[in-house]
Protein backbone atom coordinates (compact mmCIF):
# COMPACT_ATOMS: atom_id res chain seq x y z
CA UNK A 1 0.00 0.00 0.00
CA UNK A 2 1.25 3.48 -0.84
CA UNK A 3 2.30 5.46 2.20
CA UNK A 4 0.27 8.42 0.91
CA UNK A 5 -2.96 6.46 0.82
CA UNK A 6 -5.07 6.57 3.98
CA UNK A 7 -5.61 3.19 5.56
CA UNK A 8 -9.10 1.80 6.13
CA UNK A 9 -10.74 2.46 9.49
CA UNK A 10 -11.51 -0.37 11.93
CA UNK A 11 -14.24 0.61 14.40
CA UNK A 12 -14.40 -1.47 17.58
CA UNK A 13 -17.62 -1.42 19.62
CA UNK A 14 -18.18 -2.44 23.24
CA UNK A 15 -16.67 -2.22 26.68
CA UNK A 16 -13.53 -0.65 28.13
CA UNK A 17 -12.70 -1.13 31.80
CA UNK A 18 -10.00 -1.30 34.43
CA UNK A 19 -8.38 -4.66 35.08
CA UNK A 20 -6.73 -5.12 38.47
CA UNK A 21 -4.02 -7.69 37.86
CA UNK A 22 -2.34 -9.38 40.88
CA UNK A 23 1.33 -8.71 41.44
CA UNK A 24 1.85 -12.38 42.21
CA UNK A 25 0.75 -15.27 40.00
CA UNK A 26 -0.71 -18.54 41.23
CA UNK A 27 -2.62 -17.15 44.21
CA UNK A 28 -6.29 -16.36 44.83
CA UNK A 29 -7.66 -12.81 44.82
CA UNK A 30 -7.80 -12.85 48.62
CA UNK A 31 -4.19 -14.04 48.90
CA UNK A 32 -2.73 -11.55 46.41
CA UNK A 33 -0.42 -9.03 48.12
CA UNK A 34 -1.36 -6.30 45.64
CA UNK A 35 -2.74 -5.42 42.23
CA UNK A 36 -1.58 -3.48 39.20
CA UNK A 37 -4.12 -1.17 37.55
CA UNK A 38 -4.35 -1.89 33.81
CA UNK A 39 -6.72 -0.70 31.08
CA UNK A 40 -8.73 -3.52 29.53
CA UNK A 41 -11.85 -4.61 27.72
CA UNK A 42 -11.61 -6.76 24.61
CA UNK A 43 -12.98 -4.28 22.01
CA UNK A 44 -10.71 -1.50 23.31
CA UNK A 45 -7.73 -3.86 23.29
CA UNK A 46 -8.44 -4.69 19.65
CA UNK A 47 -8.62 -1.01 18.72
CA UNK A 48 -5.25 -0.30 20.34
CA UNK A 49 -3.71 -3.45 18.86
CA UNK A 50 -4.60 -2.08 15.41
CA UNK A 51 -2.98 1.31 15.94
CA UNK A 52 0.07 -0.23 17.59
CA UNK A 53 0.60 -2.07 14.30
CA UNK A 54 0.26 1.12 12.27
CA UNK A 55 -3.41 0.86 11.37
CA UNK A 56 -6.37 3.20 11.91
CA UNK A 57 -9.01 2.45 14.52
CA UNK A 58 -11.79 4.01 16.55
CA UNK A 59 -13.56 2.88 19.71
CA UNK A 60 -17.29 3.28 20.35
CA UNK A 61 -18.57 2.79 23.88
CA UNK A 62 -19.49 4.46 27.16
CA UNK A 63 -17.30 5.19 30.17
CA UNK A 64 -18.06 6.48 33.63
CA UNK A 65 -17.72 10.21 34.18
CA UNK A 66 -15.12 9.40 36.84
CA UNK A 67 -11.33 9.49 36.99
CA UNK A 68 -11.03 5.97 35.65
CA UNK A 69 -13.27 6.78 32.68
CA UNK A 70 -11.32 9.87 31.70
CA UNK A 71 -8.07 7.98 32.20
CA UNK A 72 -9.23 5.27 29.79
CA UNK A 73 -10.28 7.83 27.16
CA UNK A 74 -6.84 9.39 27.51
CA UNK A 75 -5.19 6.01 26.94
CA UNK A 76 -7.16 5.58 23.72
CA UNK A 77 -5.97 8.98 22.48
CA UNK A 78 -2.37 8.32 23.56
CA UNK A 79 -2.42 5.18 21.45
CA UNK A 80 -3.80 6.91 18.38
CA UNK A 81 -7.35 5.55 18.65
CA UNK A 82 -10.16 7.86 17.55
CA UNK A 83 -12.29 8.40 20.68
CA UNK A 84 -15.02 10.56 19.14
CA UNK A 85 -17.37 7.61 19.61
CA UNK A 86 -16.87 7.59 23.39
CA UNK A 87 -19.55 9.04 25.66
CA UNK A 88 -19.54 9.49 29.45
CA UNK A 89 -22.16 8.78 32.09
CA UNK A 90 -22.02 11.01 35.17
CA UNK A 91 -24.34 8.72 37.10
CA UNK A 92 -22.48 5.42 36.61
CA UNK A 93 -18.99 4.16 37.32
CA UNK A 94 -16.45 2.72 34.93
CA UNK A 95 -16.43 -1.08 35.09
CA UNK A 96 -13.76 -2.85 37.14
CA UNK A 97 -12.49 -6.43 36.93
CA UNK A 98 -10.20 -8.20 39.39
CA UNK A 99 -8.16 -10.84 37.60
CA UNK A 100 -6.58 -13.95 39.11
CA UNK A 101 -3.45 -15.10 37.29
CA UNK A 102 -2.87 -18.82 37.67
CA UNK A 103 0.65 -20.22 37.58
CA UNK A 104 0.16 -21.18 33.91
CA UNK A 105 -0.80 -17.63 32.92
CA UNK A 106 -4.53 -18.38 32.55
CA UNK A 107 -7.06 -16.12 34.26
CA UNK A 108 -10.23 -15.97 36.31
CA UNK A 109 -12.36 -12.83 36.71
CA UNK A 110 -14.46 -11.05 39.33
CA UNK A 111 -16.44 -8.12 37.88
CA UNK A 112 -17.84 -4.93 39.42
CA UNK A 113 -20.42 -3.58 36.95
CA UNK A 114 -23.97 -3.45 38.32
CA UNK A 115 -24.58 -1.33 36.39
CA UNK A 116 -21.40 0.14 34.96
CA UNK A 117 -21.39 2.91 32.37
CA UNK A 118 -20.72 0.61 29.40
CA UNK A 119 -24.05 -1.14 30.04
CA UNK A 120 -25.94 2.15 29.75
CA UNK A 121 -24.99 3.24 26.22
CA UNK A 122 -28.15 4.26 24.34
CA UNK A 123 -28.78 4.12 20.56
CA UNK A 124 -29.25 7.91 20.44
CA UNK A 125 -25.72 8.39 21.85
CA UNK A 126 -24.02 6.60 18.95
CA UNK A 127 -21.69 8.54 16.66
CA UNK A 128 -23.31 7.30 13.46
CA UNK A 129 -21.00 9.29 11.20
CA UNK A 130 -17.99 7.53 12.70
CA UNK A 131 -19.64 4.12 12.41
CA UNK A 132 -20.54 4.73 8.77
CA UNK A 133 -16.89 5.49 7.99
CA UNK A 134 -15.74 2.01 9.10
CA UNK A 135 -14.36 -0.50 6.59
CA UNK A 136 -14.43 -3.12 9.36
CA UNK A 137 -16.85 -3.03 12.29
CA UNK A 138 -15.74 -5.29 15.17
CA UNK A 139 -17.71 -6.26 18.29
CA UNK A 140 -18.12 -8.81 21.06
CA UNK A 141 -21.07 -10.20 23.00
CA UNK A 142 -20.79 -8.52 26.43
CA UNK A 143 -22.62 -5.49 24.99
CA UNK A 144 -25.58 -7.80 24.22
CA UNK A 145 -26.24 -8.72 27.86
CA UNK A 146 -28.47 -5.85 28.99
CA UNK A 147 -30.50 -2.92 27.72
CA UNK A 148 -30.03 -0.21 26.62
CA UNK A 149 -26.58 -1.26 25.42
CA UNK A 150 -27.99 -4.23 23.52
CA UNK A 151 -30.17 -1.94 21.41
CA UNK A 152 -27.21 0.37 20.83
CA UNK A 153 -25.13 -2.62 19.71
CA UNK A 154 -27.80 -3.79 17.24
CA UNK A 155 -28.25 -0.26 15.87
CA UNK A 156 -24.49 0.19 15.39
CA UNK A 157 -24.25 -3.16 13.55
CA UNK A 158 -27.14 -2.21 11.28
CA UNK A 159 -25.68 1.19 10.42
CA UNK A 160 -22.20 -0.23 9.78
CA UNK A 161 -23.56 -2.98 7.53
CA UNK A 162 -25.73 -0.59 5.54
CA UNK A 163 -22.64 1.58 4.98
CA UNK A 164 -20.73 -1.39 3.57
CA UNK A 165 -18.52 -2.38 6.49
CA UNK A 166 -17.22 -5.91 6.98
CA UNK A 167 -18.66 -7.25 10.26
CA UNK A 168 -16.19 -8.99 12.63
CA UNK A 169 -17.40 -10.86 15.74
CA UNK A 170 -15.43 -12.25 18.68
CA UNK A 171 -17.97 -13.41 21.30
CA UNK A 172 -15.36 -13.15 24.06
CA UNK A 173 -17.45 -15.26 26.44
CA UNK A 174 -17.51 -14.13 30.08
CA UNK A 175 -20.00 -16.60 31.47
CA UNK A 176 -20.26 -15.08 35.00
CA UNK A 177 -21.71 -11.88 33.48
CA UNK A 178 -24.70 -13.68 31.95
CA UNK A 179 -27.89 -14.63 33.85
CA UNK A 180 -27.49 -18.25 32.71
CA UNK A 181 -25.53 -20.35 30.18
CA UNK A 182 -28.74 -20.75 28.16
CA UNK A 183 -29.24 -16.99 27.91
CA UNK A 184 -25.60 -16.53 26.94
CA UNK A 185 -25.93 -19.01 24.07
CA UNK A 186 -29.21 -17.48 22.93
CA UNK A 187 -27.95 -13.90 22.81
CA UNK A 188 -24.50 -14.72 21.42
CA UNK A 189 -26.15 -16.67 18.59
CA UNK A 190 -28.82 -13.99 18.03
CA UNK A 191 -26.39 -11.95 15.91
CA UNK A 192 -24.37 -14.88 14.60
CA UNK A 193 -25.67 -14.86 11.02
CA UNK A 194 -24.84 -11.17 10.56
CA UNK A 195 -21.05 -11.51 10.96
CA UNK A 196 -18.75 -12.17 8.01
CA UNK A 197 -15.70 -12.94 10.15
CA UNK A 198 -16.06 -14.85 13.43
CA UNK A 199 -13.31 -15.82 15.85
CA UNK A 200 -14.00 -18.24 18.70
CA UNK A 201 -11.76 -20.08 21.13
CA UNK A 202 -11.95 -23.84 21.64
CA UNK A 203 -13.65 -23.15 25.00
CA UNK A 204 -16.27 -20.99 23.26
CA UNK A 205 -16.73 -23.59 20.53
CA UNK A 206 -17.43 -26.22 23.18
CA UNK A 207 -19.81 -23.87 25.01
CA UNK A 208 -21.80 -22.83 21.93
CA UNK A 209 -22.10 -26.31 20.41
CA UNK A 210 -22.46 -28.09 23.78
CA UNK A 211 -20.04 -30.61 22.34
CA UNK A 212 -16.75 -31.45 24.05
CA UNK A 213 -15.22 -32.70 20.79
CA UNK A 214 -13.14 -29.97 19.16
CA UNK A 215 -12.86 -30.91 15.48
CA UNK A 216 -13.76 -29.70 11.98
CA UNK A 217 -17.29 -31.09 12.19
CA UNK A 218 -17.95 -29.24 15.44
CA UNK A 219 -16.55 -26.00 14.05
CA UNK A 220 -18.52 -26.23 10.81
CA UNK A 221 -21.75 -26.66 12.77
CA UNK A 222 -21.36 -22.92 13.46
CA UNK A 223 -21.05 -22.03 9.77
CA UNK A 224 -23.70 -19.81 8.17
CA UNK A 225 -24.20 -18.70 4.55
CA UNK A 226 -23.06 -15.09 5.06
CA UNK A 227 -19.80 -16.12 6.73
CA UNK A 228 -16.52 -15.56 4.90
CA UNK A 229 -14.11 -16.83 7.56
CA UNK A 230 -14.41 -18.77 10.81
CA UNK A 231 -11.35 -18.83 13.08
CA UNK A 232 -10.96 -21.20 16.03
CA UNK A 233 -8.08 -20.53 18.41
CA UNK A 234 -6.64 -23.58 20.14
CA UNK A 235 -4.20 -22.23 22.73
CA UNK A 236 -0.84 -23.93 22.40
CA UNK A 237 -2.05 -25.78 19.30
CA UNK A 238 -2.40 -22.58 17.25
CA UNK A 239 -5.55 -21.90 15.27
CA UNK A 240 -7.79 -23.38 12.60
CA UNK A 241 -9.41 -21.50 9.74
CA UNK A 242 -12.50 -22.27 7.67
CA UNK A 243 -13.75 -20.60 4.48
CA UNK A 244 -16.24 -21.69 1.82
CA UNK A 245 -13.41 -23.07 -0.33
CA UNK A 246 -10.69 -24.30 2.03
CA UNK A 247 -9.71 -24.94 5.63
CA UNK A 248 -6.56 -25.69 7.58
CA UNK A 249 -4.42 -24.93 10.64
CA UNK A 250 -1.55 -22.61 11.51
CA UNK A 251 0.83 -23.66 14.25
CA UNK A 252 1.88 -21.78 17.36
CA UNK A 253 5.10 -20.04 18.42
CA UNK A 254 7.37 -20.92 21.35
CA UNK A 255 7.34 -18.36 24.17
CA UNK A 256 7.47 -18.24 27.97
CA UNK A 257 3.93 -17.15 28.85
CA UNK A 258 3.64 -14.73 31.75
CA UNK A 259 0.12 -13.33 31.35
CA UNK A 260 -2.40 -14.30 28.65
CA UNK A 261 -4.52 -11.16 29.15
CA UNK A 262 -5.28 -9.52 25.82
CA UNK A 263 -3.48 -12.08 23.67
CA UNK A 264 -6.63 -13.07 21.79
CA UNK A 265 -7.39 -9.39 21.17
CA UNK A 266 -3.85 -8.89 19.90
CA UNK A 267 -4.46 -11.79 17.49
CA UNK A 268 -7.75 -10.27 16.28
CA UNK A 269 -6.34 -6.75 15.96
CA UNK A 270 -3.35 -8.02 13.98
CA UNK A 271 -5.58 -10.04 11.67
CA UNK A 272 -8.02 -7.18 11.02
CA UNK A 273 -5.18 -4.70 10.42
CA UNK A 274 -3.91 -6.92 7.60
CA UNK A 275 -7.24 -7.51 5.85
CA UNK A 276 -8.95 -4.13 6.17
CA UNK A 277 -7.45 -2.93 2.88
CA UNK A 278 -6.97 -6.33 1.24
CA UNK A 279 -9.97 -8.61 1.62
CA UNK A 280 -8.54 -10.96 -1.02
CA UNK A 281 -6.82 -12.52 2.01
CA UNK A 282 -10.16 -14.16 2.78
CA UNK A 283 -10.18 -15.92 -0.60
CA UNK A 284 -6.51 -16.86 -1.12
CA UNK A 285 -5.23 -19.53 1.25
CA UNK A 286 -1.53 -18.69 0.89
CA UNK A 287 -2.19 -15.06 1.84
CA UNK A 288 -4.49 -16.10 4.70
CA UNK A 289 -1.90 -18.43 6.22
CA UNK A 290 0.73 -15.68 6.13
CA UNK A 291 -1.62 -13.23 7.85
CA UNK A 292 -2.60 -15.80 10.48
CA UNK A 293 1.07 -16.51 11.19
CA UNK A 294 1.56 -12.79 11.78
CA UNK A 295 -1.52 -12.71 14.04
CA UNK A 296 -0.21 -15.74 15.93
CA UNK A 297 3.08 -13.93 16.50
CA UNK A 298 1.29 -10.87 17.91
CA UNK A 299 -0.78 -13.07 20.23
CA UNK A 300 2.33 -14.91 21.41
CA UNK A 301 4.30 -11.72 22.09
CA UNK A 302 1.43 -10.35 24.19
CA UNK A 303 1.67 -13.30 26.60
CA UNK A 304 5.28 -12.48 27.49
CA UNK A 305 4.42 -9.38 29.58
CA UNK A 306 1.85 -8.53 32.25
CA UNK A 307 -1.18 -6.55 31.18
CA UNK A 308 -2.81 -6.38 27.76
CA UNK A 309 -2.14 -2.93 26.31
CA UNK A 310 1.48 -2.57 27.48
CA UNK A 311 2.28 -5.93 25.88
CA UNK A 312 0.69 -5.28 22.46
CA UNK A 313 3.47 -5.36 19.84
CA UNK A 314 4.37 -2.97 17.06
CA UNK A 315 4.63 -4.15 13.47
CA UNK A 316 8.44 -4.15 13.60
CA UNK A 317 8.44 -6.13 16.86
CA UNK A 318 6.16 -8.77 15.38
CA UNK A 319 8.21 -9.12 12.20
CA UNK A 320 11.43 -9.32 14.20
CA UNK A 321 9.87 -11.98 16.44
CA UNK A 322 8.89 -14.08 13.42
CA UNK A 323 12.38 -13.73 11.92
CA UNK A 324 14.07 -14.67 15.20
CA UNK A 325 11.74 -17.65 15.62
CA UNK A 326 12.61 -18.90 12.15
CA UNK A 327 16.30 -18.57 12.96
CA UNK A 328 15.88 -20.55 16.19
CA UNK A 329 13.82 -23.25 14.50
CA UNK A 330 16.66 -23.77 12.03
CA UNK A 331 19.10 -24.35 14.91
CA UNK A 332 18.65 -27.94 16.19
CA UNK A 333 20.90 -27.27 19.20
CA UNK A 334 18.76 -24.41 20.54
CA UNK A 335 16.90 -25.42 23.70
CA UNK A 336 13.13 -25.46 23.41
CA UNK A 337 10.99 -22.96 25.30
CA UNK A 338 7.47 -23.39 26.62
CA UNK A 339 5.13 -23.91 23.67
CA UNK A 340 2.37 -21.31 23.97
CA UNK A 341 0.49 -18.94 21.72
CA UNK A 342 -2.35 -17.47 23.75
CA UNK A 343 -4.97 -18.83 26.06
CA UNK A 344 -8.03 -20.42 24.52
CA UNK A 345 -10.45 -17.97 26.09
CA UNK A 346 -8.55 -14.74 26.61
CA UNK A 347 -9.56 -11.20 25.83
From TrEMBL:
EC number(s) given by UniProt: 2.7.1.4
Organism: Brassica carinata (Ethiopian mustard)
UniProt KW keywords: ATP-binding, Carbohydrate metabolism, Kinase, Nucleotide-binding, Transferase
TM ranges: none
Record-level Gene Ontology MF annotations: ATP binding; fructokinase activity
Family (UniProt): Belongs to the carbohydrate kinase PfkB family.
Pfam (any one): PfkB
Top EC group: transferase
Protein name: fructokinase
UniProt function note: May play an important role in maintaining the flux of carbon towards starch formation.
CDD domains referenced in this protein's UniProt entry, alphabetically: bac_FRK
Reaction(s) this enzyme catalyzes, per UniProt: D-fructose + ATP = D-fructose 6-phosphate + ADP + H(+)
Gene3D superfamilies, sorted: 3.40.1190.20
One GO process term, biological-process aspect: fructose metabolic process
GO CC terms: cytosol
Superkingdom of origin organism: Eukaryota
Keyword field contains Repressor: no
Domain Carbohydrate kinase PfkB: 9-313
Pathway membership, UniProt: Glycan biosynthesis; starch biosynthesis
Amino acid sequence: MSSTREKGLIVSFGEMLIDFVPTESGVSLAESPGFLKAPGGAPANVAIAVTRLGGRSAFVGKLGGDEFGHMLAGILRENGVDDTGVSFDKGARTALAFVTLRSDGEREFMFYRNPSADMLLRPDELNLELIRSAKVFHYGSISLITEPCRSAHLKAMEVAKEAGALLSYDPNLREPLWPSPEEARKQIMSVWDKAEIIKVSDVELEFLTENKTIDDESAMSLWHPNLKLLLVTLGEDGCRYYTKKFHGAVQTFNVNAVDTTGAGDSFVGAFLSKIVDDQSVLEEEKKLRKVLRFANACGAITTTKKGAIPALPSDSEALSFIKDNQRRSNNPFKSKKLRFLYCSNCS
